[in-house]
């Protein structure tokens, strides 16, 4: 069984094959998702909401993420392990490098950071030290209070252009992957065309290279409000592993996301 690497994601992009990504927080479900063929597992700071019950990702600490990274790293075999840098890891470059170092020691193979064009210096320094970076643009949940809620981003022309420019700038600085959250389909396509690295989407439509969802959403576990881009893949399946497999196949066959999941 061949492990998924950054190179595999680049090959998928080159071949026009979509790859599947899913959040994971513990060894058992990571093993299950890995066996189901999920290509990338993300230890997301969404754990603050789905595991800890907070209203946002802001209370999540580096220690929380390190703990869950170790758990997931023990469970997975084939999937690539991406891990979130928590709120304020980007306070300065020294902090960013130290925090990313701890995540890599815990088992991360790719770190994800929220921000915009101003993150270029941090991304350059991480990349220089051999740490591959995914830049998370669009709806960045760590800025929820500044954004005024979990809202679709890039609807206005100027804002859309700013996101395209930021993606280009961060890839020039070394970002190996771009993740776009909650942006209109057209904007996601523009970003995908503007950069040469794999682009992962969540609520960004079908025209990107990979799709990601929060594991609890794939299993239909939510607190009442179901965002438009989410689909319950457990429905009609006999097991959690079958649900993960159904999600991975729907992504690979470009059946998910459909028009009803897209802005
Ligand atoms: O923390 C997380 O789960 C994420 C995904 C929503 C992409 O960042």
Polypeptide structure, described:
It is a single chain. The protein is of the alpha/beta class. The longest helix has 16 residues. The chain has a single domain, classed as Alpha-Beta Barrel (TIM Barrel). The chain is built from eleven helices and eight strands. It is globular, with a radius of gyration of 17 Å. Helix 9 links the parallel strand 6 and strand 7. Bound molecules: 3-methyl-2-oxobutanoic acid. The site of 3-methyl-2-oxobutanoic acid has 11 residues, from strand 6.
Give a quick set of tags describing it:
alpha/beta, 8 strands, TIM Barrel, 263 residues, eight-stranded parallel barrel, binds 3-methyl-2-oxobutanoic acid
Tell me briefly what this model is.
The chain is α/β, with parallel strands linked by helices and 263 residues long.
- CATH names the topology as TIM Barrel
SS strand fraction:
5-15%
- Number of separate strands: 8
Q: State the shape.
A: globular
Number of domains: 1
* Helix content, binned percent: 40-55%
Structural class: alpha/beta
Question: How confident is the prediction overall: mean pLDDT?
Answer: 97
CATH class: Alpha Beta
The CATH homology group name: Phosphoenolpyruvate-binding domains
Measured between the Cα atoms of the first and last residue, the distance is 37 Å
**Spans where pLDDT lies below 50 across 5 or more residues:** none
Supply the CATH architecture.
Alpha-Beta Barrel
Number of helices: 11
Hetero groups in this structure are: 3-methyl-2-oxobutanoic acid
Q: Characterize the largest beta sheet: strand count, sense, and whether it forms a barrel.
A: 8 strands, parallel, barrel
Radius of gyration: 17 Å
């Amino acid at each position: 069984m061949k492990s998924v690497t950054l190179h595999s994601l680049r090959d998928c992009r080159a071949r026009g094959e979509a790859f599947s990504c899913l959040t994971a927080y513990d060894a058992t479900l990571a093993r299950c998702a890995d066996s189901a063929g999920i290509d990338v597992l993300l230890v997301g700071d969404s754990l603050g909401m789905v595991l800890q019950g907070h209203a946002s990702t802001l209370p999540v600490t580096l220690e929380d993420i390190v703990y869950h990274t170790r758990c997931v790293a023990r469970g997975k075999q084939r999937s690539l392990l991406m891990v979130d840098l928590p709120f304020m890891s980007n306070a300065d470059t020294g902090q960013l490098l130290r925090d990313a170092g701890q995540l890599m020691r815990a088992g991360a193979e790719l770190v994800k950071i929220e921000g915009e064009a101003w993150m270029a210096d941090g991304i350059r320094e991480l990349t220089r030290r051999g740490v591959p970076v995914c830049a998370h643009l669009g709806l960045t949940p760590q800025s929820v209070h500044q954004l005024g809620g979990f809202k679709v981003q890039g609807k206005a022309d100027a804002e859309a252009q700013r996101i395209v420019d930021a993606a280009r700038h961060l890839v020039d600085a070394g970002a190996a992957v771009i993740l776009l959250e909650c942006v209109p389909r057209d904007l996601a396509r523009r970003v995908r065309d503007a950069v040469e690295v794999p682009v992962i989407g969540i609520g960004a439509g079908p025209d990107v290279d990979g799709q990601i969802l929060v594991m609890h959403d794939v299993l239909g576990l939510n607190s009442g409000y179901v965002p438009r881009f989410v689909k319950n893949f457990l429905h009609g399946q006999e097991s959690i592993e079958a649900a993960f497999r159904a999600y991975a196949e729907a992504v690979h066959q470009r059946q998910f996301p459909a028009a009803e999941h897209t802005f």
